[in-house]
Amino acid sequence: MQLEKGRKTVILMLDGFGIDYFRASDMPVLKKMAQDGFFWEGKAVFPTLTNANNISIVCGSFPQTHGVTTNCYLDPITGKPAFLEDPGFLKSPTLFEMAARQGIRSALVTSKSKTIRILGGSVDAGLSAQDADLETIRDFGGPPDIYSIEVNEWIMRSGMKILRNRPDIDILYIHTTDYPMHMWAPEDERSLDHLSRLDRLIGEMADKYPEAAFLVTADHGMYPKKECLDLEKILRAVGFPIRAAISPVADRLVKHHGGHGGVSYIYLHDRSRRDEILYFLSGLRGVDNALPSEDAAICYRLDRDRIGDIVVGADPETVFGTIESERKDLHDGYRNHGSRFEQSVPLIAWNARLGETDSIQYNLDLTRALFFE
Question: Structure pTM?
């Protein structure tokens, strides 16, 4: 692991910050970092959801190695969907663990409490805006509502306060919320205001710590959607025996996406009929592609044992989820992610010694190049 004690690294994982947001935004600080440092229009890991990408970045590897492919999985004991919110699924060490073994201290500031539960075991300071405890409120102030622009400012300022009060912290990982991106398109004035505010805070941080390395990327982009399909209802209605159709994007924060997403993991009772189901799904309106799990694992570098029997990707205007009917029109302005169409994200490194950059194609390659090679 390439780490120097006393040299700070700030990793900004701006949730939902697709390449179109970067291009449309008035973010002079970040764009100067991209101009003067390393920049590439790269890719997020598929499925384009937070857990799979956050953990890929923190582990410097794909889900085929670290094992996390979803926010939601089919519990083998209950046979019902359950949320992935603990570190038991991780098969790889995180950069926080590796740093701790070398005496390097780290901090994690995030919008979601599950991120602390999954990744916070080895950090020296961990804060979550969701369900903030009394100690966090005392030291950093009460966080704004999780469904707001202001919560991302709180996250950034809290990260800066940690660096100020804990000069021994050398790695700071900041994970914002994608609520503003779910709400507003890149050119919307409210989106532009949100990103302008973040840019000013990035500038403050860079001015305060001019020797620090900065890595900036995202877990996915965002795309407007028109229709939701309930694949479980659709498949059962035509007589196919399935156990469940899981939306990997689903988590506890459903206000902005309703638990829907652009990918589905299909679990079967009878795998002998899988080819029939694949053929049916390939012709279904709203489906981009449907792959046997072993093929999807190779194609997307996923853990074969954690993606069901079939992986279904939605077309650019469709999401999958549990609804009251087989199909449902979505309201104007509905935006979501999960499919391959939200993979384009900025990869930015400033003041960072990445070495050979030709192999940097994915968000996880930034941390892999800096810490794991």
Answer: 0.95
